[in-house]
Amino acid sequence: MHLFLLHSYAFRLQEFACQGINGPQEDLIDMQGTKLLWSVKEAGNALGISSWTIRRYLAEGKIRAIRIGRRVLLEPAECQRLIEAGRQRIDWAKVKASR
Fold it and tell me: Residue 57, Cβ neighbours under 10 Å: how many?
């Protein structure tokens, strides 16, 4: 994945954490007004991937979730950890040579 895309995902994570994805909700909110937990759909929207991909990552153990009743919730930090795990060091000499 390109470095630019990873930075844009990280920016989107911060944006969603500050604004809330679906507007005001009755979910847990911390002192700064950000949501403490995201639904599978919200996490997928923040990362730009489908909720089914999030569910597959959960099944594969790539990310961890919190189950409250029937709800499956994720911490925003868990999504950030997924981004960090996907970061790759880009060898620009190889990129220029392939052109």
Answer: 22
Estimate to the nearest angstrom the gap between the alpha carbon of 89 and the chain centroid.
20
pTM for the model: 0.58
Let me know: does 44 contact 54? Beta carbons within 8 Å: yes
pLDDT 10s digits, 1-27: 444 444 555 556 556 555 544 444 455
* Three-state SS at 66: strand
* Angle formed at CA 24 by CA 58 and CA 59, multiple of 5 degrees: 5
The string over 23-54, giving b where at least 16 C-beta atoms fall within 10 Å of a residue's C-beta and e elsewhere, is: eeeeeeeeeeeebebbbbebbbbbbeeeeeeb
